[in-house]
């Protein structure tokens, strides 16, 4: 009975060899696609500056106060470094000024954070799946490799060991790339969330945030002109003193 159980385990392991190799190749393709998308994200964000964000936020606040919501949304799209941020900007502008706007804006920010975590979960999954597939792809070919060694079949031993070591390297590569993408993307998406919070605060405050960026110019106060002292009026001629004799 024990031999039968062992035989089942061996057959299952052998049957998993091809699926593991296919899954490892699919994981490699997925991480390469994510790498390409990450490069595009970096190119879009290279123009990001807080000065541009602050100016667009102040201009959008002025447009919202004037009732030009479409213009305000268009102004914020110029500093939206991703489609998700642009969509969130549009929702925030639409809700500003309505009853219960703070609650709906807070819900939009929470939804953005939830979608950000979902976006990061793909590469986080590859961080764990890659090495796991590499380990499985390493151990599965070892059984036929050892069997070939026992039979003196050097070709079978070499072929299985090459497959085992290749899958190991592939799994480690997938894990390293996915880990790097996850770490950098977490910082980038955190910055996006911070930008959304800043714009939401600028559009819903009492106007001090926008005025601090675009202060209303004030005319310089003219310096007070020095007045010439009033001319001294000549003293009236006093009558000549007369000597009195006793």
Report on this structure.
With 246 residues, the protein is mostly helical. It contains eight helices and no strands. The radius of gyration is 38 Å and the shape is elongated.
> Which ranges are low-confidence, i.e. pLDDT below 50, for 5 or more consecutive residues?
216-221
| Helix amount | over 70%
CA-atom Rg in angstroms: 38 Å
Distance N terminus to C terminus? Answer: 165 Å
* Helical/strand content category: mainly alpha
Average pLDDT, rounded to a whole number, is: 83
Order of helices and strands: HHHHHHHH
Total count of strands: 0
Helix count, DSSP H or I runs of 4 or more residues: 8
Total number of domains: 1
* % residues in beta strands: under 5%
What shape does the CA trace take? elongated
Largest sheet: number of strands, sense, barrel closure: none
Give me some keywords for this one.
246 residues, 0% strand, single chain, transmembrane, mainly alpha, elongated, transport, protein transport, MotA_ExbB_proton_chnl
What's this, in brief?
With about 250 residues, the chain is mainly α. The protein has helices at about 1-45, 50-65, 70-75, 85-95, 100-140, 140-150, 155-205, 210-215.
Give the SSE map:
Layout: H1 2-45, H2 50-65, H3 69-77, H4 83-95, H5 101-139, H6 142-151, H7 154-204, H8 208-213
